[in-house]
Specification:
The chain is 39% helix and 18% strand. Helix 3 crosses helix 6 and helix 8 runs antiparallel to helix 9. It has 327 residues and is an alpha+beta fold.
Length: 327
């Protein structure tokens, strides 16, 4: 175990501003500034590769790994970005930064994105709306304690800014905490006499608390895209591009294991795999060029750009391989 400093997430300043505005709108005082000492936490560190991260996820093996955060073009399935982090870094943390990098560096006009359930967060939804991007995220089943009501059974009344419990009692706004969640509390006098109390809360003071993120409205709108016809097409296309890209990388390009130690060398392996996949993909697309274009086929105007990308990728691929041979 090793104690390390917790790095603040990129959107923290924006979240703090939103918390301040929300508290002011509810007549609450501004929160006191946090202590100047940086937050720390204990993490497991590998004895053979200290750059890797210990991953604990449902349905995944536990251990020290690296993660490849990959972005794939929705039309031709060309890999546009690959970013490697230790496995203990959540998928959603680097996403908006990598999205902005592609938009600024390559001039991409991103109109829509399809993301799996690991990116279903209020911060991602808010970031996509701020960038005027149509986002579609996979469904994430919320945590639930057996025997208690699901959170969806508490209806949020936007006009009154209250939650209504299954027994039609109101949960009133109490405060907004530092993590960006509003807290809605029930009336313990009503809860003590409620016939549904054992299905609602097991707290000693007989008070039910429901939380709501200050950006939850953005999250709800992005979640709704998944059920729209356009959103369904985007998410279906995601399975045909991103998932296929990762499958090819694992099956054909050694992506199941890190071949070298260290974050830089792991990134090098991922970049090589992405370059090799793009070379094959672009070469295949060039063989299908038609004068009038077609569904998912480049037209003549795109041919020159693809040829330039193919030459650049081939040169980069050979250059990196030469460096590896000379080590």
């Amino acid at each position: 175990m090793q104690r390390v400093e917790v790095k603040p997430v990129e959107y923290l300043a924006q979240l703090d501003e939103a918390i301040g505005e929300d508290r002011a709108a509810h007549g609450k005082r501004e929160l006191k500034a946090k202590a100047s000492e940086p937050e720390t936490k204990d993490i497991k560190v590998s004895r053979t590769d200290s750059d890797s991260g210990y991953m604990v996820r449902d349905g995944k093996p536990k251990g020290f790994f690296y993660l490849d955060h990959r972005t794939v073009d929705g039309r031709y399935a060309i890999i546009t970005d690959t970013h490697v982090t230790p496995a203990n870094v959540h998928d959603s943390i680097p996403y908006l930064g990598r999205l902005d990098r592609q938009r600024e560096r390559f001039g991409f006009n991103v109109r829509a994105v399809g993301l799996d359930a690991g990116y279903a967060s209020a911060a991602i939804a808010k970031g996509l709306e701020d960038r005027n991007i149509y986002g579609v995220t996979g469904y994430r089943r919320p945590n639930h304690v057996e025997g208690l009501f699901h959170k969806r059974q508490f209806h949020y009344d936007r006009e009154r800014d209250v939650y209504v419990c299954p027994n039609q009692q109101l949960l009133i706004y109490r405060t907004t905490n530092r993590e960006g969640y509003r807290q809605y509390h029930s009336d313990q006098r009503q809860c003590r006499e409620c016939a549904l109390r054992q299905q609602c809360t097991r707290s000693r003071n007989a008070t039910k608390i429901v939380t709501r993120h200050v950006w939850q409205a953005s999250r709800d709108r992005v979640d709704a895209h998944r059920l729209e016809p356009h959103g369904k097409r985007i998410y279906k296309r995601r399975k045909e591009t991103v998932e296929r890209s990762f499958a090819d990388a694992k099956q054909l390009h050694g992506h199941r294991y890190a071949r070298m130690r260290g974050l830089v060398r792991a990134a090098e392996q991922c970049l090589l795999a992405a370059a090799a996949q793009n070379i094959k993909k672009i070469a295949l697309l060039l063989s299908r060029v038609r004068p009038d274009g077609g569904p998912n086929r480049p037209d003549s105007a795109t041919k020159t750009q693809l040829q330039q990308q193919l030459r650049l990728l081939t040169q980069t691929f050979c250059w990196i391989q030469a460096l590896n041979l000379n080590r």
